[in-house]
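Entry type: protein chain
Record version: 2
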Amino acid sequence: MRAFPALRELRSQNEAYEISLAEASLKPSAPESVATDPTLEGFNIDYGYKDGNFYLSIPAEVTFPSGKAELTKKGKEALQAVANKLLDEHKDGDYWIEGHTDTDPIKKSNWDSNRQLSVERAMAVLHYLVDECNVPDDRCVVAGHGQYDPVAANEDNAGKARNRRVEIVVHKARS
């Protein structure tokens, strides 16, 4: 008796699904889940694990006025919450403070480029964390990515707003 072509195709697909399922069960589990933190979420700070490192992403709308690198009052409050998280739960890590911008060219500020603005914002965060929040300076690294590491397309205001941020990535401490 001949099997119908459609039945053969279904059996073949089923075998492929079973193989995929078996391979998926061998892959490492997802990163550890992160307990919610109402304080961080109150400041619209995104946080979690990326590439095995804990990160916090602080939107520029919370921390800086447009085109500036001076922290706002709300930005200082947000950074105090960030410092508490770092010192309570990640005190043995190294903190990479990374500034990011959107692609809009600098027009009405003192900065020559988006990269310079991103570095100055990262430095402002560093100084506040070290000087006001007692984060150890020797555990911090500062970088400015400018517009070169976006998390969203820079095609509309919402995407650009997501790209304007300072991220703090916690790496395992250097030996």
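Comment: Residues 25-33 have pLDDT under 50 and may be disordered.
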